[in-house]
Design brief:
The complex is a heterodimer.
Chain A: E1 2-11, E2 15-21, H1 23-28, E3 34-38, E4 46-49, E5 52-54, E6 59-65, H2 69-75, E7 82-83, E8 85-90, E9 101-107, H3 111-123, E10 127-134, H4 143-149, E11 152-157, E12 164-165, H5 168-179, E13 183-187, H6 190-203, E14 206-210, E15 226-229, E16 232-235, H7 236-239, E17 242-244, H8 250-257, H9 261-274
Parallel strand pairs in A: 9-10, 9-13, 10-11, 11-12, 13-14
Antiparallel strand pairs in A: 1-2, 1-7, 2-6, 3-4, 3-8, 5-6, 14-17, 15-16
Helix pairs in contact in A: 5-6
Chain B: E1 21-22, H1 25-28, E2 36-38, H2 41-48, H3 58-61, H4 69-77, H5 81-89, H6 95-101, H7 123-142, E3 162-166, H8 170-181, E4 185-189, H9 198-201, H10 210-222, E5 226-228, H11 239-245, E6 248-251, E7 257-258, E8 271-273, H12 274-282, E9 301-305, H13 309-320, E10 325-329, H14 341-349, E11 353-355, E12 358-366, E13 369-381, E14 393-396, E15 402-405, E16 408-411, E17 415-416, H15 419-422, E18 430-431, E19 434-435, E20 448-450, H16 453-456, H17 462-484
Parallel strand pairs in B: 3-4, 3-6, 4-5, 6-20, 8-16, 9-10, 9-16, 10-11
Antiparallel strand pairs in B: 1-2, 7-17, 12-13, 13-14, 13-15, 18-19
Classes of the chains: A alpha/beta, B alpha/beta.
Bound molecules: flavin-adenine dinucleotide (FAD) (2 copies), iron/sulfur cluster (SF4) (2 copies) and FE2/S2 (inorganic) cluster.
């Protein structure tokens, strides 16, 4: 059981910020790790990355985009409500070291988990540059946080309403061409991470990605989160979630992410009907 | 040594056991209700009357947890069910579970004297009857909400220690149970949100109702055992922290990592490890989707690879999820199936198809989803040099390739050791990923003990894991007492 001690609408209408009181997890969690939550007895288990960790305050933060039933149901909870199960920290922490110049590439909610990762790189002596992208200005999140840890924040929007106009990978290409990088860390939708790896590959820059496979237990027990990396089968929950992006079989990951499309739709539609949201 | 009892003179052998009631196969194909309905009191007393109360007690030696079988059966035959329960519980923390899932034919019943020439005494069913009877009684008492303390501490003052148990499968439960009875404060750490290990997430409802597992967990809590769920040791806390915070640690984390064959197509959508298929169904209740949130692709035509209890459970689960046809693909012959005899019989009654002596070589796909299973026929040969003696060796027959159409394939070829805890524990000696222990379940680390599938590997039984838990509890007790003394 974990209490929601803060909740904010980060970006209308569907990205929310939650702060949970879970001292034992906060004491242990490291950037790059995730938790698995279950809202109630009939709920499914969904993985969510840590968007911040405060060991002293005993809290962790999550930034969640409503994409289906469970994430939308979570959004109906308010400050003071409880989440039935919070299991974590899970996955391996991102390998933090003084990497020279690190470029963080965040798409969608992916910017949020990059925040503690970037802060840790900075604390380890690395120089941090952040590239964040969205369709338009209103869809950007975590800008202020990223400003705080980066020597530069590059914004790109598809309609040009903020920063440079274009897709995030164009901005990444430009940065690599003009200033180079020692390490790229990309977190976001699979297609975005894949495209980022396409760019970094041509510059020969090592790229760490955080894979979001469908999970249940998060302990290596079900094998549902398996992906192919470098021709080998890996379990994202215990071998990852971070992998060398150059080695990931992206098409397979994306196919497996869509495995339950029809069922997810059915579940979401029914939930909306029951909650008079149609 | 066999034959008549010595004290009351010769006892006539009743050759056939009292049959247990079972759900009709046509009905049970469609639901997740328990198949075996067990004995009623009259049937139990009659069956108990078949026991010869042998002086040498071969059945007890056949039971990995050492249940005093003739003694509890004698109580049942007198109608003293409460007494019978006390006797069973003195050795067995999970009687309602064991009565249902032990492979009795190779354990207690396999060596029963009556069974030499006739049908063995139905020890498992009797054990289950007693446990179920007790649960019913207790259910009535429990509604009055009076917390009981069973098993008063027997340890000398101050000798009771604090013990951490990692994993709430049968090994961990039994270890906690025995330690609590000896007066130790036990905390169980379980990674999932429900305790019980394989009993909860693996063995299906129709074989072992989850309410029974939950009830056994309540019994543990009543004894003062603390159960912390959502606690993944190796991530939330390291083994080192546990050894600092507790007087001793028991590791019973099972062998949960699913194995795949390594054939092409295993990453297609619709390919499940048996663990995933069963976890979705049992732990997450996907069979009640969308009332429960977790989905499952049950499939119209299902192929299950393997031949053990796990394969049988996955196959029978697929039948209940509404598959039109479910085919079991096993590389040896029917006689070699490692599953419990009762499960094979039940599965057949429910319409499971068998492709024996068959080796899957590829899972074929269509647009990312499974479309079939390509297989080779095998011939069973006498074991050659380098093979295990006695067991026939399957060899593929060239040119025998054929395909089984399928939209779901479930891989049930075994599991290996999960590295989550062991990988992060410095100084813990392992062999091929499994924890090395001595005869007392002690590991290479002082104060750390281990037992169950994480030591012996999967393919073991519930009662064997429990036996290890008991043995470890004894050693932990001695360790803690000497440490404190
Ligand atoms: C390691 C990891 C970290 C993640 N971190 C975040 C995060 O910080 N913020 C965030 O908004 N989302 C995150 N996700 C994705 C999040 O788990 C899914 O959005 C969520 O499970 C969707 O559930 P739903 O019921 O709302 O939607 P559904 O309609 O059930 O699913 C929508 C999509 O989400 C994915 N999904 C569904 N169920 C699961 C599951 N059990 N496990 C994983 N993915 C699933 C599938 O691709 C699916 O097509 C993360 C995923 C992983 C694996
Ligand atoms: C589907 C299936 C059917 C079976 N049928 C039978 C049968 O009919 N009869 C029979 O006798 N045997 C059967 N078996 C075998 C039997 O269930 C196992 O041998 C037995 O459960 C092993 O017990 P265990 O306590 O060692 O481990 P498990 O039962 O595997 O329990 C281990 C527990 O530890 C937890 N855990 C793992 N890692 C961590 C960690 N790092 N931190 C915290 N917790 C952790 C797991 O979540 C799990 O709950 C079956 C097995 C399966 C999978
Ligand atoms: S625990 Fe298992 S082996 Fe032992 S008596 Fe009971 S059913 Fe038989
Ligand atoms: S159960 Fe069988 S072996 Fe055991 S005492 Fe009775 S008759 Fe003898
Ligand atoms: S989520 Fe089950 S093995 Fe990774």
């Amino acid at each position: 059981m974990a209490e929601i001690i803060d909740k904010r609408l980060l970006r209308p209408p569907d990205i929310f910020y939650y702060k949970l009181a879970v001292p034992s997890i906060a004491a242990k969690a490291k950037p790059g790790q995730f938790v698995i939550i279950r809202l109630h007895d009939r709920g499914e288990r969904i993985p969510l990355s840590l968007a911040d960790i405060d060991p002293a305050g005993g809290t962790i933060s999550l930034v969640v985009m409503c994409v289906g039933k469970t994430t939308s149901e979570l959004a109906t909870l308010q400050k003071g409500d409880n989440i039935k199960d919070v299991c974590g920290p899970l996955g391996n922490p991102t390998r933090i070291h003084n990497a020279g110049k690190v470029v963080l590439v965040g798409g969608g909610f992916g910017v949020a988990p990059l925040y503690p990762i970037g802060r840790a790189f900075k604390d380890a002596g690395s120089r941090v540059v952040t590239i964040m992208g969205a369709r338009n200005k209103g869809l950007l999140i975590y800008g202020r946080e990223m400003e705080g840890i980066s020597e530069r924040v590059i914004v790109s929007t598809e309609d040009g309403s903020a920063g440079t106009k274009g897709v995030i990978t164009d901005a990444l290409e430009m940065e690599l061409k003009e200033n180079g990088a020692d390490l790229v860390v990309a977190v976001g939708p699979a297609r975005m991470m894949q495209a980022a790896c396409g760019k970094t590959g041509t510059f020969g820059v090592e790229t760490v990605v955080s894979l979001n496979a469908v999970m249940i237990d998060g302990t290596g027990m079900c094998g549902g989160c398996r992906v192919r990396v470098g021709g080998e089968t890996k379990f994202v929950c215990i071998d990852g979630p971070d992998f060398d992006g150059a080695l990931v079989d992206w098409d397979l990951l994306i196919k497996r992410q869509r495995q339950y499309r029809a069922e997810e739709k059915e579940s979401f539609e029914q939930w909306k009907k029951n909650h008079n949201l149609e | 040594m066999s034959g008549p009892r010595d004290d009351k003179g010769g006892k006539k052998i009743i050759p056939n056991r009292v049959p247990a009631r079972e759900l009709d196969p046509r009905e049970r194909r469609l639901n997740f209700e328990e198949v075996n309905l067990g004995y009623d009191a009259g049937q139990a007393v009659r069956e108990a009357g078949r026991c010869l109360n042998c002086r040498k007690r071969p059945c007890v030696a056949g039971c990995p947890v050492g249940v005093p079988i003739p003694d509890f059966i004698a109580s049942v035959s007198r109608g003293d069910f409460a007494g019978a329960y006390r006797i069973i519980r003195s050795a067995n923390a999970l009687p309602a579970v064991c009565g249902r899932v032990c492979p009795q034919e190779t354990q207690c019943e396999g060596v029963c004297t009556v069974g030499r020439k006739h049908e063995a005494v139905a020890i498992g069913r009797l054990e289950r009857f007693v446990a179920d009877w007790r649960m019913k009684e207790q259910g009535a008492a429990r509604t009055q909400k009076s917390p009981r303390k069973s098993g008063a501490p027997e340890t000398p003052d101050g000798a009771g220690g604090r013990v951490a148990v990692v994993g709430s499968g049968p090994a961990g439960i039994t270890c906690a149970y025995d330690l609590a009875q000896l007066g130790h404060k036990v905390t169980i750490f379980e990674a999932l949100h429900e305790p019980g290990g394989v009993l909860f997430y693996g063995i299906p409802e129709f074989r072992l109702p989850k309410s029974i597992v939950a009830r056994e967990m309540d019994n543990l809590k009543d004894m003062g055992v603390l159960i912390k769920t959502n606690a993944v040791i190796g991530r939330l806390l390291g083994l080192g922290e546990l050894t600092e915070q507790f007087d001793a640690v028991f590791i019973g984390t099972g062998a949960g990592l699913p194995r795949f064959q390594g054939i092409p197509g295993e990453d297609l959508n619709g390919v499940y490890s048996a663990n995933e298929f069963l976890t979705r169904t049992n732990l997450m209740r996907a069979y009640r989707f969308p009332a429960y949130d977790t989905p499952i692709k049950a499939g119209r035509r299902v192929a299950v690879i393997g031949g053990g209890n796990v394969a049988m459970d996955a196959a029978r689960t697929a039948i209940r999820l509404g598959a039109e046809s479910v085919t079991l693909v096993y590389r040896r012959g029917e006689a070699e199936l490692p599953a419990r005899a009762e499960e094979v019989r039940h599965a057949k009654e429910e319409g499971l198809l068998f492709e024996m002596c068959t080796l899957p070589v590829e899972i074929t796909g269509d647009d990312g989803y499974v479309s079939g299973l390509k297989c080779l026929r095998m011939s069973l040969c006498e074991p050659g040099p380098g093979d295990l003696p006695g067991r026939k060796v399957p060899k593929p027959i060239s040119g025998s390739e054929f395909s089984i159409p399928a939209d779901t394939v479930i891989v049930a070829i075994g599991t290996s050791a999960n590295p989550l805890l062991t990988g992060s524990a410095r100084g813990l000696r392992l062999r091929r990923g499994y924890i090395e222990t001595d005869d007392t379940c002690a590991t290479s680390l002082r104060g750390v003990f281990a037992g169950g599938d994480i030591v012996t590997g999967s393919g073991l039984t519930v009662s064997a894991a429990m036996g290890a838990g008991r043995k470890a509890a004894k050693a932990i007790h001695e360790y803690v007492v000497s440490k404190k003394g």
